[in-house]
From TrEMBL:
SUPFAM superfamilies: Acetyl-CoA synthetase-like (SSF56801). Residues 501-512 have a biased composition (Basic and acidic residues). This is AMP-dependent synthetase/ligase domain-containing protein. Residues 492-512 are annotated as: Disordered. InterPro entries: AMP-dep_synth/lig_dom, ANL_N_sf. Residues 567-839 form the AMP-dependent synthetase/ligase domain. It holds the Pfam family AMP-binding_C_3.
Length: 1045
């Protein structure tokens, strides 16, 4: 064959760096020149596993002077092959040939990376089941390899190591062969190791290893700058709760800062990865401050942690302090894989007095069962907001969920589909790809559009080298609870997190997740700005889409979906579910396309993360199909309905134009259902259907226009922005108006979007109408307090609207003092915009839109406070009266929302009807104001949660869950006990407020305050709101006894 190469050898070498080993082997056969180029890449990395075929291949390379100098990367895996199943009490085939081959590691004099892999089953062999890879076996592998790397291996030293292993009586009879150990190389040759990774390192303090001079020399190598450890732990299948008493894991972490993270290695590290199969940091405790050095880890650039638990403020500062001498002024990359914040713990006490907030493992393993309750105030927005300013060198921040159990699906299937691996053994492949998340964290995140049925929608090549963390929002910034009284794991949500990684995570308090998301986006924005080399905002570019283009795209979508749904027999008006993010252009095109094709869209956002709930709502609506975000392909494989990914169909324009355009559907009557939305479900526990009728839809569009026209002040071209997902009614109503009126509507890059993006929208793209949820708007206002230019931009807006939650009172007062055009909107999903506050008036009072037909109906009974409470009721003749399925028996829609008319046609909200309880005198009591006063005066230190009850009673009763629940664990319920003291302290603080109240709504005795354990008060499953009537029912006996006094 002609040896002439059309490309330079350097280019060929670059090509070879991306080729898999089978392709390299074939390339070597083409010609001698390509053989010379491909040969070093073919043997650049080699693998030694614990079965004979692998050992033979390894030895052939080790004994070849020509080949062994080409090796740069060694993987040594104790796995004995696919024919043996671990932890099954089978006869373990001790890997004699593998053990005898380990000394040959010293021959690979050019190796710079070493990957050691053990089995995840570890522990004390005589404790429960047989353990194949005992602590002695693991020590023998580690110390032998260290002696080879350090240039300290001798036959005599190897025999000493083996003698220590012979203490394991299971293998005392095994004889290893070292007859071929002399290859004429220097006994003192040190391998230039740069990277050391260990999978399933046992959580056992191996003092035999720590005392080894060879091990100490290896971890002190100046060349070793990359350390990645994945630590395994012993489990007990028969009694999982017993694992808490396995003392060696606590000793492992107690000695970590003087062993694997000693100063000798930490001074040189630029990359550190620490993963553990269970949660760690709090319990088992590891205090990073014990790593010696000032600053700690001075050269570190990359840090990855798995299952590490945050609890204390010092952790924020420690992460900011590392890497201060790396040339980048701190960490450059930080990866947090399943690293939650612990916000509540019930653990055996007393806790460690020397380390406040941490358990003492000696007490837990040796003491009596005496649980204590502890709360931790740290939240993700505390951490991320500080890191945004303190971690000046940070270029990459990722948090999410890695492949903890088995091989990552994307890499597994990428290799399966690669023609270079036609006959690959799937058991071997699955094993080799597993337990690598401590190495693969920088790799691309799993494909959200991965679909085994549609391989064209998935790009396999980028996953051949590994798969990183999933960064679905539900996998990020988690909170967790520890309870020593639960099992099999005391870490609550552990099983749900593993099995349902897409489910919306728990939040300690309502509103915390919103603050966390805002802080997360602010951190990413700061990182993006630094990566772009700017100190201000990074630039975002929007694409203009004209209404003719939008119409064409909707019609292409209609052609596509009509063709798809006709094939399953879907009739006109049939309900089709759409489960999407709701803020991408394609999401809108799919929704409008389904409607234009003559079907009825039923909308779900990705915030509804449980498929079971979606399936239930689809059944209730009698849906015939589901269109979903491509990221949900896998979890919807068992969908009860035909499901279709919402892919980019616009790229198929030429094909779609050949399909017929469906006739335009026109409603035949005012009550025709055009779309279906859902409530949040916070009151009843599950969402309910909200059908949108043709009459309702017309009125909602017109009302939105009337409101915006009423508050329009300066700019002639109205330009709005999505408040949230267009799968919810708030943003949808604004978008409907934009389309109907020919105004402009902007889609942000993400939700919530950074302030830099908002500034661009206003200053460069002419945003006039800003709509934001209150937590995100508060973050903007806080930044505007410090940034006069941002405040100036906000003042150019026609209106700043918000709804769904009240705006923080301090932020609202500041904004009004600055003349910002605030507009609060009151609009439940069932009714769209009901009331709004006019920014021109700047009072915050609500008023109805023009031409509305609502009724403000006085309550039949008096509240005894001089205020006349009015319930907002929508009569059936009102065009926005919702579907008949949502109305009361009288044909009206009773909102349950109460108001007081403070001026003609101007209203102030007074909570919901169920926040006002009727006392025995038929007068009403405002429980909301009592609860707010308790939290204002006692929420910082005494009270965790509060609810006021007492319907039909002479006076109200306050139930509280205390901040410090340990007071309930003692026998201190007497007059001088801690419970009584807590009730008296609360009573003294709230007394000034109650002195001004009517008798029927006053707390005038500490005995009217009842203290119950945290988590006792019944709550709704979604938002976690306390259910007042259910509290009355559950504690009826206590209330009867109290009022009988």
């Amino acid at each position: 064959m002609d040896n002439h190469l059309p490309l330079l050898p350097e280019i060929w070498a670059n090509i070879c760096s991306f080729l898999p080993k089978p392709s390299l082997s074939r390339l070597r056969l083409t010609c001698s020149k390509l053989n010379d180029i491909a040969l070093p890449w073919t043997f650049r990395s080699i693998l030694l596993e614990g079965y004979d075929d692998s050992v033979e291949r390894f030895l052939n390379i080790a004994k070849s002077p020509k080949l062994r100098v080409l090796v740069r990367e060694l993987t040594i895996d104790t796995w004995v092959g696919p024919g043996y199943e671990y932890k099954c009490n089978n006869t373990y085939p001790f890997p004699v040939a593998f053990m005898s081959a380990l000394p040959y590691v010293r021959l690979f004099e050019k190796a710079t990376a070493l990957h050691l892999r053990f089995n995840e089953v570890c522990g004390q062999d005589d404790r429960t089941d047989d353990i194949e890879e005992t602590w002695f076996l693991r020590y023998r592998v580690l110390d032998t390899v260290c002696h080879c790397i350090a240039g300290m291996w001798t036959l005599e030293k190897q025999i000493q190591i083996d003698e220590k292993m012979s203490q394991d009586m299971s293998w005392y009879h095994v004889k290893l062969d070292y007859s071929d150990e002399d290859f004429g190389i220097s006994q003192e040759q040190v391998l230039p190791l740069r990277e050391l990774t260990i999978s399933n390192l046992a959580d056992f303090p191996e003092f035999n290893l720590y005392g080894s001079k060879a091990w100490k020399k290896v971890i002190s190598l100046p060349s070793l700058v990359d350390l990645r450890l994945f630590v395994a732990t012993e489990s007990n299948d028969a009694s999982p709760e017993s694992a808490v008493h396995y003392q060696e894991k606590y000793e492992f972490f107690e000695n970590l800062s003087s062993s694997w993270l000693s100063r000798a290695i930490c001074q040189n590290l630029t990359t550190l990865s620490l993963f553990y199969r269970d949660y760690w940091g709090w319990f088992p405790k590891f205090d990073f401050r014990r790593i010696r050095g000032d600053p700690p880890l001075p050269q570190l650039k990359v840090l990855a942690l798995g299952n590490y638990v945050f609890t204390h403020d010092w952790q924020i500062d420690w992460f900011s302090a590392i890497g201060q001498k790396n040339g980048s002024n701190g960490l450059e990359e930080l990866y947090l894989d399943d690293c939650p914040i612990l916000f509540e713990a019930r653990q055996v006490g007393p806790f460690d007095a020397r380390s406040p907030g941490y358990p003492d493992y000696h007490v837990i393993t040796e003491g009596t069962y005496n649980p204590e309750k502890h709360e931790y105030s740290l939240r993700w927005h505390h951490i991320l907001s500080q890191w945004a300013t303190s971690m000046k060198g940070l270029k990459v921040f990722k948090t999410g969920h890695g492949s903890w159990n088995g091989a990552p699906r994307d890499t597994l299937h990428a290799i399966k589909q690669d023609v270079a691996f036609p006959d690959i053994d799937m058991k071997k492949l699955d094993h080799r790809l597993s337990d690598n998340l401590h190495r693969d964290f920088p790799c691309p995140e799993p494909a959200r559009d991965f679909n085994l049925k549609d391989k064209d929608a998935w790009t396999p090549v980028k996953y051949l080298q590994g798969t990183g963390m999933s960064q679905l929002r539900a996998s990020q910034m988690r909170y967790i609870v520890y309870d020593c009284g639960t099992g099999p794991s005391p870490w609550l949500e552990t099983q749900r997190r593993r099995s349902m990684p897409t489910r919306e995570p728990h939040e300690p308090e309502e509103g915390t997740r919103a603050k966390d998301y805002a802080a997360y986006e602010a951190l990413l924005s700061a990182i993006k700005s630094r990566n772009n080399g700017t100190t201000g905002s990074s630039k975002t570019t929007w694409k203009d889409i004209s209404f003719p283009t939008f119409q064409k795209d909707v019609e292409l979508s209609a052609r596509y979906w009509k063709d798809k749904f006709s094939k399953i027999g879907a009739k006109e008006k049939a309900v089709v579910g759409l489960w999407s993010r709701g803020y991408a252009y394609l999401d809108i095109i799919h929704t409008w396309g389904v409607a234009r094709a003559g079907y009825t869209p039923q909308l779900f956002s990705l915030k509804m993360t449980d498929p079971a709930v979606v399936y239930q709502l689809l059944r209730e609506a009698e849906a015939v199909a589901l269109v979903h975000d491509p990221s949900y392909n896998l979890i919807l494989e068992n969908s009860p309905l035909p499901s279709y990914p919402g892919d980019d169909i616009l790229s198929q324009e030429c094909y779609l134009e050949q399909l017929p355009l469906p006739a335009l559907r026109k409603p035949s009557k005012a009550e025709d259902i055009m779309m279906i939305y859902h409530t949040s479900g916070s009151t009843l526990g599950t969402p309910k259907l909200v059908p949108i009728t043709a009459k309702w839809l017309d009125h909602a569009i017109a009302t939105c226009g009337d409101v915006l026209e009423a508050v329009q002040m300066s700019r002639t071209q109205p330009t709005g922005v999505a408040m949230g997902s267009l799968s919810h009614i708030a943003s949808t109503a604004v978008f409907w108006h934009a389309v109907s009126s020919g105004s402009c509507f902007m889609l942000p890059t993400r939700l919530p979007y950074p302030t830099s993006e908002l500034r661009q929208m206003i200053d460069e793209y002419g945003l006039t109408n800003l709509s934001m949820f209150p937590p995100f708007l508060s973050a903007v206002f806080r930044e505007a307090r410090k940034d006069p230019s941002l405040l100036a931009s906000l003042k150019t807006l026609n209106n700043i609207s918000y709804g769904g939650l009240p705006l923080d009172r301090t932020d609202e007062a500041w904004a009004r003092s600055q003349g910002l055009p605030l507009m609060s909107v009151f609009g439940p999903t069932e009714l769209s915009i009901l009331l709004f506050s006019d920014p021109k008036e700047n009072t915050g009072y609500f008023k109805p839109p023009p031409n509305s037909k609502y009724q403000f109906v006085p309550l039949e009974d008096d509240i005894g406070s001089g205020e006349r409470l009015l319930e907002l009721v929508v009569p059936p003749e009102a065009p926005n009266c919702p579907h008949s399925s949502l109305r009361s028996a009288d044909g009206k829609f009773h909102t349950g929302d109460l108001f007081v008319e403070v001026a003609p046609g101007r209203y102030v909200p007074k909570g919901r009807n169920d926040n006002w309880i009727k006392m025995e005198t038929a007068l009403r009591c405002d429980t909301g104001s009592i609860e707010a006063n308790v939290m204002d005066t006692c929420g910082n230190d005494l009270v965790s949660a509060v609810v006021v009850v007492g319907a039909g009673r002479p006076c109200p009763t306050v139930f509280i869950e205390p901040k410090n629940e340990s007071i309930l664990d003692s026998d201190g319920n007497g007059p001088e006990g801690p419970v009584s003291k807590l009730k008296n302290d609360i009573f003294q603080r709230i007394a000034p407020f109650h002195k001004r109240r009517y008798m029927h709504e006053r707390i005038d005795d500490p005995r009217s305050i009842l203290v119950v354990p945290q988590g006792t008060l019944p709550r709704t499953p979604t938002k976690g709101n306390i259910r007042r009537k259910e509290v009355e029912r559950v504690f009826q006996g206590e209330l009867e006894a109290l009022y009988a006094r």
